[in-house]
Amino acid sequence: MMRKKKRSSTTLDEDSTLDSLKSKKSRISGKASKTPVQSSNKDSVFVQFLKESGVSLTSGSTANEIAVDQVIFQKRLQQHLRKNPRFPDIIQEFISSFEVYIEEPERFRNCLLPCVPSSTSQHNNKLIINQLKWLDRIVDGKDLSTKLLQMVSVAPVEIQRDIITSLPEILEDSQHGDMAKELNLLLSTPLCSVLLQQKTQLTVPVLDALSSLNLSSSLLSEVREAVMGTLSAVQLEDLPVVVKFILHSISGSDADAVVCDLRKKLELEQCVLPAVLQASQSRTKSKSSSGVPACNSGQDSVALILDVIKSAIRFQKTISEAWLKAIEKIDESEDHKVVDLLVLFILHSTNANHSRRGAERVLKVKVRMGLIQENLLQKTFKGHAQVMRGHFPSILALAQGLLRSPDCCVVPFGGHMYKLAFTSFDSYCQQEVVGSLVTHACSGVSGEVDVALELLCELGILDYMDNLTSQQIRRLFHLLSRLAFGQEQHGGHVQDDMHIVIRKQLSSTVPKYKRIGIIGAVMMVGSMGASGNKPTGSQDGTLTKETNRQVMALLELVRSCSETSPEAAALYYDEMANLLQTCKLDPVVQAWIGKSVLEDFQEDFVVDLGPNISGTFVFSASVLYNLDEDESQGGIAINLLPLMAQEKQLKTDSQAAAAKTDRRVSPLCLSPFFRLLRLCEEVQHQGDLEEIDALLGCPLVLTDMEVVEKVVNAFCKQNDPEMKMKVVTRIQNITYLQNLLQTCLAGYLPPQANFDGENTDGMLSSSSIVPPKKGKKESSGRKRKASASKNSSGDKSLEEAAEAEESQQEPLEKDIEKEKEKDVKPVVSLSSYWPFFRELDVDVLRVLQCGLLSRTLLDTEMHSRLREEVQLGPAELLFLLEDMWRKLDFSLAAAPAKKAPFLKSKIDRALGFAHLQQKSAKDIATCCTELLPTLCTHLENCHNHFQALASENQGVVDVLNVDVKEQQLMSSAYQFLLQVLHTTFSWAGFSISEHRALLKRALGVLAGRLKEEETELTLDQLSRHAFEYLQNFRSTVPCLSTALCLTQLLIVLSQYGGTNHRSYREQIASLAKHFLSQEWVTVSGEKERGNKYNETLQALLGIYLEHTDDVLKAVEEIAGEGVPELINAAKDASSHSWPTLNRQTFLVYYKSMMAELERAARKIPPSKPTDKQEVQSEKLLTWNLAVRDFHILINLVKIFDSRPVLTVCLKYGRLFLESFLKLGMPLLDYSFKKHKEDVQGLLKTFQLSTRQLHHMCGHSKIRQDTGLTNHVPALKKSLEQFVYRVKAMLTLNNCQGAFWLGNLKNRDLKDSDSDERNNGQEEVEESEESD
């Protein structure tokens, strides 16, 4: 008590002295004294708050004193200000008091000087500790460390911190280990709840001290484990220091385990939760904590943690790889955390390319597998938006990559990243997001543009359309018109702008802009004339009179602007038809459109059928394809030929065409106009086409395949048997016309058939439109072969094999073929002309349900009298299947986004699928699932057909009673059926959970063909039954390409098989081997050959080697057994055990075996010194087999020494040698002493191969073939590395004497000396002497 009084009196004396000094200073300065101000300064808010916060204001020339750390002072001052009852007015009072206080220059100068520590007892303690640092001589360092630790156990927390942080500067190096153990005990010893707060407060000083101590790796690992144990109890603001210590103490060997453990214990989600969840930490710092909200402090701590992780990743490659591995190991979506996404963003933001690519790869894989989902991304943005703002460039780049991905499973995730970045970040980021989406929308890639436009529906409006496709323009105008003419009607200015833009584009003479105007106008009609609730003032419909007037006026405007151009008019009809399919219009508008369309079509294209056709034509006119023979007189016909003559006259008479301003009727508009008419009738009469059913059977004046296709489109959904029969007959007409076109299209560019894109110029290659020249084929072939013999660097391997095959033909056969060519018209492939045909609707595929009609069921007049069931022939079946496969390939197959080659026009993949684009991929997949029973029936019919044919002819194909054309049609239909199934089940959408029911339904159809199950089967069981069902078709596949389709289909089905992957792999390998062991012949009995056959064979051989259990054994079986059979066989003969292996296909086999051998060598696990002896022996045996296979393949070059074989050998030989150096030589280092003879045998075998590779390098230089010599430098380098690596292995095992170098002579492939004798290669010889 006496001490307290004495201290209080002393304080009063000091205050009075301070007042007297202040008064003296005031008088000395010559300024008038302000007594009220001085008296108020003593008790002012500024002085009082500073004193309570730990700063004592001094007088005179001495600096102000501070009794606490600067950070603590700032927190205390903030707390006093915020907790004051007059907050926030107290802040202005504090500032005013501060201004009054610094009016005196002396005080102002003192405030500008840095504060000095106060002379308190705590400061004295620091001074004592500072005296112990850097002592020149310590008598008993151990005793000193013991005393310091004893002081730590009893001193206050502030002094404990000072002592612990000063330990590295006090102790000698020899005491570091013992002190580290004591500090580790301080961290790891379990404490009671009372001391838990003290323990967590000392975590940061202890880590600072441990970071400065010199520790062994084992002790450092032990300390790190102890620190990891305190991670859950450490205070939030200390967490960055703890994470920094853990990451900085990682070594390369334990990086994976430590990072994985750190990721498990690092819960960033709790850092942004309310402070209630961290009450234990909040209570302990209630006096020193500031008034800043807990969420802001949590965000700051998370930001510091991420900075620590970013620093560690940037400067330590092992840590970045460890984070990637830790995230990759997670196989459940529930186990992924916010920290995973944040770390991926950090990895992407680093400058290292491997980290950036690794982050992109891991994110795509995780999103594709459904492990990182949108809810986790949303949680990350919601809780850590402030932290993620610093990684915005990486977020934007990752979103761009996901949106541009050809994988449809990851595109929605990229779109979600864009939306969250737009809604979570500031205006600058929002502008960048919109700019990036505009870039996507103008990229020209279909899927990317569609998703970008959908996102822009929520985020912004595009203001230019020059680079958009027709489908994208439809989406854009649909968005604009929905905003302008929505129910709320708040877009008046948008309506005016749209009317102005559309009128301007419709009046343009540039087809591109007129096309945009037509599409935009039709989209506006769809929004303005959409059926809705019936308003007041309307008549029979749901629209007002004014709206009806505007809609009809707009339609009249489009019609008048497009009637002078057939292409524009056809586009207008197509767009109106698309609108009727996708939009329900007002009844009044619909009735007006239907009436005008019916009247115009009858006036333009329908004529009464009479006995004679009047007019002057280029060739004689006739009426064709009349199905209503009973109404030949008094009926109607499509007036095609007169319109074509009129169109030709307009084109030839340029002056008349220029002066022509009236409405122009063109045959180009017939098919689009008929489609519009059909849809109008369907909408008005609920699908009944009775009003226009006469068009199904009416004849054509001349004929047009597009018109016939539109008729099939129109009436394919009718259920009447008579109409079905007519539809099938029309399909027969189409197939007949296609056969005619194959002989008539040579050298002809057809007119445009699809009008929603650019013109079709340049879509056909010159070989497709120019007829081949006769009489020069043989000479051009000789010229090509002569140039190849002169310089073969530009040849392709498969082409050279085909040329070698052609060179074996006899001259007599060539003369016979030459005579035949004079009488045969050139035949073109219609595949390159598909953009010039009109598109069949998806509903036409229902005709497949009519069944298959084989030739044996036809009578002598080739007509079917069975009208109860309508059936298809092989040609019609093939026509429908090919069209179906094209549709599936466009809608379901993920096409990679490829840029057009330089100086070559890019052909739009969507050309010819304008109607199909109106349907989603799910709709197409559902349609295919509904047709699966019919497809299976056709597949079984094809199987039965070839099975019956084989049984009747005892397996012989080239018999006289086989119809070659029918066999070709059936074989093609077989292949297209399998391709349709393969494309359907390969749809990436089946991997999404919402489409899993559709997948089970599709698999159930295949499984039900095998046996019907009453109980519901699992996905695994369904895939197994479907696999077994399709395996039954292996015995009747007619050609190798069909066999490949079946194998690929089974591979796709095996991916849905769950846990039976090994069984599936065995069956697929067995099936592929069965096909490879079969001799394939064409319908005419000749062996299959050619480039396409070689490509198919290479794919099938790759599947076999990829799925077989033992690749090395399979390669040895082919190279060691099959190839020797070929060597000893005749020139045109094949291998007995592998009939597909002959001299023409040897290159295919050789390349596949070399590639798979090199891939298998890379998959051999790397060796470690800690491996058990059994593991080392197994790996050594594997490398022995691989080296033996490699030696066999290398030696084959001596026999098959063609240039393509040499190229393959040099390329894959170097890759195999590099894999051996990287993975095989470490194994030999560890195994040499225990398995000396095995290692020596392996090296001697491998030495023979490297010697042969050296000879190949010399041969390449002698030939001066640039295609071969390009591989020589890298191969030479690897050969030299092999020499010195073997020397290092022998040195490591104390066998230096068993190694000697010598000059290896350069030889060619025939083992003869070359002229290059000074360019030698060292050779390795290992003796069998003991150590």
Structural summary, described in words:
With 1331 residues, the chain is mostly helical. It is built from 57 helices and eleven strands. The longest helix is centred in the C-terminal third of the chain and has 32 residues, at 921-952. The radius of gyration is 43 Å and the shape is flat. 35% of the residues are buried. Residues 1322-1331 have a biased composition (Acidic residues). It is found in: Nucleus. Pfam families: FancD2.
Mean pLDDT equals 75
Number of helices: 57
Structural class: mainly alpha
Numbering strands along the chain, what is their spatial order in the largest sheet? 1-2-3
Low-confidence stretches: 1-40, 190-197, 273-295, 655-660, 766-823, 852-860, 897-905, 1315-1331
N-to-C CA distance: 89 Å
GO molecular function: DNA polymerase binding
GO biological process, one term: mitotic intra-S DNA damage checkpoint signaling
Family: Belongs to the Fanconi anemia protein FANCD2 family.
Pfam family, one: FancD2
